[in-house]
Amino acid sequence: MHGFKFAVALILLFAACATDAAGVRRIKIDASAAGPWIAGAVWYPCATSVQDARSDDVALSGVKDCPLSGNKLPLIVMSHGRTGWFGGHHDTAAALADAGFVVAAVAHPNDNERYHDGTDSLEVLAGRSGDIKRLVDFMLGDWPDASRIDDHRIGLFGFSVGGYTGLVVIGGDPDFRKGQPRCARTDLRPLPVCAQLDSGELPMDAPAHDSRVKAAVIVDPWPEFLLPADHLSAVSVPIQLWSSDPSHQADGVSGCCAATIRDRLPSQPEWHFVANANHFAFLALCSPKLAQDAPRICTDPPGFDRAAFHQTFHAEIIAFFRKHLNAGQKQ
């Protein structure tokens, strides 16, 4: 589902869920020489009781513009999946905020639920990592509470193409050679990026790395074919890597491609295989309306409890970031 109908369904999803103590604000990163304007949201620790917060046309669960609680807070930046949006993992963002993290997410230009003209293109697959670098710059510079963030404690969460994006941010070097050999696979031939590489096209901007990111949670990363082992050799930060179950690969995405990336990384990540989970089990729980309008992302396999899984999922992510980001805490 694309366009306005999908956006409305996602708005309903966001409105239907609640958080315990997360403040929330909308953000906008202005256009510059580095790229176009980017919309997003920030979740952060807040001591005020729960209430719905409305901002523009999107109902954000949390306390709108609540004063931030705490200092020297760790920052987590989030990268959504293919044609996703900045609120696709809002329950995960809120859980991290409740645990003491500032969490910032953006809608990747030309590859989000409203605007997806660039989805699967060379421009987007080269530029997504730059969006995340700009988000870190914004959070440490222009965000009103930037001084409350510990710039030595920055982590990343990436799902699907956002997982690929995260791997590039932490040092992965996409293979954008002319005639990229893996593009010869029949299942990849329709992808715009493969046609562009076959013609010898090069990205306008080089993929961006950001050494400020010290740990990463990567979920079902794709497209894995752009990151062969020798293009991941510079990745050195701790990674928590999650995989859905390939027994559900009839949907075209489940089970791909965390295990492949795991075997290519120079050091072993913290590995989590989620039996009976499909690819979309990592997205936030669906409202009844969204379940009706977007069954593909809302329907879980028989016997799989997304709500129960997310409790475990969030606990593991929080523990991972606490372990690996606290080591860099300023004194």
Largest sheet: 9 strands, mixed
Q: For the record, give the distance between the C-alpha atoms at the N and C termini, rounded to a whole number.
A: 48 Å
Poorly predicted regions are 1-19, 51-59
Q: CATH homologous superfamily, by name?
A: Alpha/Beta hydrolase fold, catalytic domain
Q: How many domains comprise the coordinates?
A: 1
**Helix share bin:** 25-40%
Element string (H = helix, E = strand): HEEEEEEHEHEHHEEHEHHH
Label the CATH architecture: 3-Layer(aba) Sandwich
- Output the number of helix runs: 9
Rounded to the nearest angstrom, the radius of gyration is: 19 Å
**DSSP strand count:** 11
* Anisotropy-based shape: globular
Q: Residue-averaged pLDDT, rounded?
A: 89
Secondary structure class reads alpha/beta
Beta-strand percentage? 15-25%
CATH fold naming: Rossmann fold
GO molecular function: hydrolase activity
InterPro entries: AB_hydrolase_fold, UCP031982_abhydr
Organism: Bradyrhizobium iriomotense
Keywords: Hydrolase, Lipid degradation, Lipid metabolism, Signal
Task: Describe this entry's structure for a reader.
With 331 residues, this protein is an alpha/beta fold. The protein has a single domain (3-328), classed as Rossmann fold (3-Layer(aba) Sandwich), CATH 3.40.50.1820. Helix content is 29%, strand content 20%. The protein has nine helices and eleven strands. The chain has helices at 3-16, 90-98, 122-141, 161-169, 192-198, 258-264, 288-293, 295-298, 306-325, and strands at residues 22-29, 38-45, 52-55, 58-61, 63-64, 73-79, 102-106, 149-159, 213-219, 239-243, 270-273. Strands 5-1-2-7-6-8-9-10-11 form a nine-stranded mixed β-sheet, with helices on both faces. Helix 3 (122-141) packs across helix 4 (161-169). It is globular and about 55 Å long. Residues 1-19 and 51-59 have low confidence and may be disordered. It comes from Bradyrhizobium iriomotense. This is Dienelactone hydrolase. GO terms for molecular function: hydrolase activity. InterPro entries: AB_hydrolase_fold (IPR029058), UCP031982_abhydr (IPR016986).
